[in-house]
Design brief:
The complex is a heterodimer. Chain A has 13 helices and 19 strands. In chain A, strands 12-13-9-8-1-2-3-7-4-19 form a ten-stranded mixed beta sheet, with helices on both faces. In chain A, strands 5, 6, 15, 16, 17 and 18 form a six-stranded antiparallel beta sheet that branches. In chain A, a hairpin with a 4-residue loop joins strand 8 and strand 9. Chain B is an alpha+beta fold. Chain B is built from three helices and six strands; from the N terminus they run E-H-E-E-H-H-E-E-E. A four-stranded antiparallel beta sheet of chain B has the order 2-3-5-4, covered by helices on one side. In chain B, strands 1-6 form a two-stranded antiparallel sheet. The termini of chain B are close together. The chains are: A alpha+beta, B alpha+beta.
Chain lengths: 449, 103
C-alpha cells in the first residue's frame, strides 16, 4: 500500500476560531499539510476595494499562533489560501506581518513563500484588447477599458500550480493571495503524486472546515486523507460526525452546480462519486474526476468605488404611520428633491428599507404585512460624502417631522436608537470585474522570504 | 399534501459568487427526496413564479441523487454588496421555497 496523505483543516475561515482540542487531535496523526482558507467574496466587494479584512487582527493572531507554533515545530507545511480575505497585496502583507511577529515571539524560523495574486490595470487592458476576457455569467456586462481604469484592486484566483512550486522549493509556510478555495488543499495531494480529481474534491470539502459534519460548522477542524483511488474525511471533534449524506450534501455548498465544478484549467465532474461510511464517522469518497480544459481560464475579481453612503436606522410604532409608510417615504423623497433643486438628481439617491415588512425580499415578498412595529433604514447614496451627509440630514429631519394625513403623533415620527442618528458609512464599492481571463502560463509570482 | 418546509431537512440560500444566489433543498431520507423529485413540482416555472424571474435568469436547476438534494441557481438582480442589494451573503432568500406544496 502506498502512503496515505493527511491534510488538517483547522477551520473554514482563518480568524473564525476553532477548538484547540480538535486541532491537537488532528496532530496526533502524521500530517502532511495544515491548510486553511482565509478568503471569500461572500461579504461583498468592500474588503477587496478598501483593502481591509473581515476578521479582526486579534482573531487572526489567535488562530495563526496555534497553527504556526504547532506546525513549524513539527515541520508540517502550512498553507494559507486567499490571505486576509480578498487576497490582494494589503491583505497578504498584513497576514505576513502577523506571521512574522508570531515566529519572532516564539523564536521559530521558517522559510516563507508568498504567492501574489494582484494584477495591474495594464495587464487586464491588454488581455481585454486581445479578447481573452469574458464575463462569468450572462448577467455580468462585458468588460470595458473605462471599467478597468476605475478598478484599482484586481486579483485572480490561482490554481494549485504556483503553490505546488513553492512546496517543491521547500517552503515551510506558504501565504497565497487570492486562490480558488480548494487549490491550496489540492496542492498537498498533488505534491504527493495523488490523483488531482481526488485532491481537488477533498479540497472543496476541507476548505469549509467542519461544515461537512453534523452538526456542521466552519469553526472546527476536519481531517482529510488521500489514498490512491479514494479519499476520506472525518471530524476531529467527537461532538460532530461525518456521514455519507452530510459529505455528499456539502458538495452543494455555495457552488452554482451540485456536481460540476469549474476551476482554473479544469472541470471537476462529481456525478459518479460514491460516498460510503467505511468506519464509524469516516466517510470514503471515490470517482471524483478532474477533466483538464483545452484552454486555461482564471477568475478575475475587481472592486471599484461607486459612491458614498450615509444612513439612519429608526423604529416606527405609530399604526397610522405604518399603514401608510411607503407613501409617506415617497413624499419625503419628493420634498427633499424639491429642497435641493440645485443638485442634479443623478448625483444622489435615497432608498428606504422597511424591516418587518419586505426589506429582505423586496418585490419578491408574498406574505402580506402584519405587525405593530417596523424598523426603517434609510440611506443616501451620493457622489461625495459631503453630499450624502447633507442630504441624509435633510431626509432625516423631513421624515421625523413629516405631517402626513390623519396624523395624531404630531411631535415626531421616528424612534432613533442612537444619537447621533446619522451614520457616515464611507465609500461604497461594487464588483466591477468578475470575469474569466485566458492564460497560457501561470501569471502568479512567487516570492521567497 | 405537505409543504417543502415540512419535508426538507435543509432549505437554504447563499451566494454562489457575487452575481448569483443558489438555493439548496436537502432531505434526510430517500423517500422524501424521491417524493419531491417525482412530484415534478420543483421546476424552472415554479422558481420563476416564486422569485419573479424570467427563465433565462434561472441558471441551473439540478437534482443530485447521491446527496438527496436539489440545487437551483439564479441570477442576482443586484450584485452582492452593491448599491441596492438587500442581502449581501444571499443568506435569507430561501423563505419563498418553504410554501411549495407537494402531493
Amino acid at each position: 500500500m502506498t502512503e496515505e496523505i493527511k491534510i488538517l483543516s483547522p477551520c473554514g475561515m482563518l480568524g473564525y476560531g476553532f477548538p484547540a482540542s480538535s486541532f491537537m487531535r488532528g496532530l496526533e496523526e502524521e500530517i502532511h499539510g495544515i491548510v486553511v482558507d482565509a478568503g471569500s467574496t461572500d461579504a461583498g466587494p468592500h474588503k477587496l476595494g478598501a483593502g481591509v479584512s473581515i476578521v479582526s487582527k486579534r482573531a487572526l493572531n489567535k488562530d495563526l499562533e496555534l497553527i504556526i507554533t504547532n506546525g513549524v515545530a513539527r515541520k508540517i507545511p502550512i498553507i494559507i489560501g486567499s490571505a486576509g480575505g480578498a487576497g490582494a497585496k494589503p491583505h497578504v502583507e498584513s497576514t505576513l506581518e502577523i506571521i512574522r511577529e508570531i515566529l519572532l515571539q516564539h523564536n521559530l524560523k521558517a522559510k516563507i513563500a508568498v504567492i501574489w495574486a494582484d494584477f495591474s490595470q495594464e495587464t487586464i487592458i491588454e488581455a481585454n484588447r486581445a479578447n481573452r476576457i469574458q464575463p462569468l455569467t450572462a448577467n455580468i456586462p462585458p468588460l470595458t477599458e473605462e471599467t478597468i481604469k476605475e478598478t484599482i484592486s484586481i486579483v485572480a484566483q490561482m490554481g494549485h500550480e504556483p503553490i505546488l512550486e513553492a512546496l517543491e522549493n521547500g517552503s515551510d509556510i506558504i501565504i497565497c493571495g487570492r486562490a480558488y478555495d480548494p487549490s491550496p488543499f489540492a496542492a498537498i495531494g498533488i505534491y504527493h503524486k495523488k490523483d488531482p480529481g481526488l485532491s481537488y474534491h477533498l479540497g472543496k470539502i476541507l476548505e469549509c472546515g467542519a461544515l461537512c459534519a453534523e452538526p456542521g460548522t466552519t469553526k472546527d477542524s476536519i481531517l482529510g486523507t488521500i489514498k490512491d483511488d479514494s479519499f476520506t474525511v472525518q471530524s476531529l471533534n467527537p461532538l460532530r460526525k461525518c456521514t455519507p449524506i452530510t459529505v455528499a450534501a456539502h458538495t452543494f455548498y455555495e457552488k452554482e452546480h451540485p456536481y460540476i465544478l469549474h476551476g482554473p484549467g479544469f472541470t471537476l465532474d462529481l456525478s459518479g462519486c460514491e460516498f460510503q461510511e467505511i468506519e464509524p464517522g469516516v466517510v470514503q469518497v471515490t470517482n471524483s474526476r478532474l477533466i483538464p480544459s483545452e484552454k486555461t481560464f482564471i477568475k478575475l475579481e475587481g472592486a471599484r468605488k461607486s459612491a458614498y453612503r450615509t444612513f439612519v436606522i429608526a423604529g416606527v410604532r405609530d399604526p397610522i404611520l405604518i399603514e401608510n409608510i411607503e407613501e409617506i417615504e415617497h413624499r419625503v423623497k419628493e420634498q427633499v428633491a424639491e429642497y435641493y433643486q440645485e443638485i442634479n438628481p443623478e448625483d444622489y439617491q435615497v432608498n428606504f428599507l422597511n424591516y418587518g415588512m419586505n426589506a429582505v425580499l423586496g418585490s419578491k415578498e408574498s406574505v402580506p404585512f402584519s405587525g405593530h412595529e417596523i424598523g426603517v433604514m434609510f440611506e443616501v447614496i451620493a457622489k461625495t460624502q459631503e453630499l450624502a451627509n447633507s442630504i441624509c440630514a435633510t431626509v432625516r429631519s423631513t421624515f421625523l417631522h413629516f405631517g402626513y394625513e390623519k396624523r395624531k403623533s404630531t411631535a415626531g415620527n421616528l424612534a432613533f436608537p442612537f444619537a447621533p442618528s446619522d451614520i457616515e458609512f464611507g465609500p461604497v464599492y461594487e464588483f466591477s470585474i468578475y470575469h474569466l481571463m485566458e492564460i497560457d502560463e501561470s501569471p502568479f509570482q512567487i516570492e521567497y522570504l | 399534501m405537505a409543504t417543502l418546509f415540512e419535508l426538507a431537512k435543509v432549505l437554504r440560500s447563499k451566494n454562489s459568487g457575487p452575481f448569483e444566489v443558489t438555493l439548496d433543498i436537502l432531505f434526510d431520507s430517500k423517500s422524501k427526496y424521491q417524493r419531491v423529485k417525482d412530484s415534478g413540482k420543483i421546476n424552472v416555472k415554479t422558481i420563476c413564479d416564486l422569485y419573479n424571474l424570467t427563465e433565462n435568469q434561472v441558471h441551473h436547476l439540478v437534482f443530485f441523487d447521491q446527496a438527496l438534494g436539489v440545487k437551483i441557481t439564479m441570477a442576482r438582480e443586484v450584485s452582492s454588496g452593491s448599491i441596492g442589494d438587500r442581502d449581501v451573503y444571499g443568506a435569507q432568500q430561501h423563505a419563498p421555497l418553504m410554501e411549495i406544496t407537494i402531493e
